[in-house]
Amino acid sequence: MTRGPRRPVRRRSPGRRLARAGAGLLGTAAVLALAIAGVVAVLDRTATREPVPARCVASVDGSWSLDLEQADNAALIAATAVRRDLPARAVTIALATALQESKLINIDYGDRDSLGLFQQRPSQGWGTTEQVQDPVYATGRFYDGLVAVDGYEQLEITAAAQAVQRSGFPEAYAQHESRARAFASALTGWSPAALTCTGGSAADGGPQAVQARVARDLGELPTEVIAAADGAPAQVVVHVEPLGAQVDRLSWSVGQWAVALAGPLGADAVTVGDRTWVRDATTWVATDEPAAPGTVRITLAG
Q: Over 50: is that where the pLDDT of 94 sits?
């Protein structure tokens, strides 16, 4: 039996094997590169995500904002009026004045010898240099001047502010009226659940810091401290009855004052009635643990 010619055996050259191995490695490298690129993209998006804005917003006839330092001073100005039983209109006038005079910042400079929140001049009898730079003193002196103006509640904001300030540009106060009115309405309690704040960090002064700030801004209101226990943070309960008979409105006044000062107070949550604001929230929400009538509960950072 005759056999046909043998077919030659093909042998793969070393170069071809290396080429195929190289292609496999390149494919693996490409997959890894894509995976790494995906991770980098996610991290990059996370890194470039906009931070929570550090501001307070009053949602009254629109949305009006202040930065946290401005909100701190606005809270004092409103609380001083509440403590003195002055109307919300007085707070609107005071806030508009401070926004125009100092941008609601306790500055240590100004035109000639003008200083502080209201740019009061020691040379014009407003007080000493140290006094007019004390926000508590400066606010009290402004209200002293305002209540001496007959019928100030019915005056245009420019006329009322000018009667106190004697500014060279009285018409400038009018541009701040809408924002001032929104924060005045929230901080005096006429607009419940209207003020929220985001951003900033919480101080760690404990209940004593809250009590000290309550006394400074609102007077000697009764407070009770609920100590931290079993993982639950400390709380300070503020009783608002000494401020007046309208305890529901005054509770919202004190509650939104506390929100505006969440950073300095070290507050993580504020509860008024059956509504609670928590740090960095933009709304007040219902709670299963309401505050007692006539009280505001401030929950401190853990």
A: yes
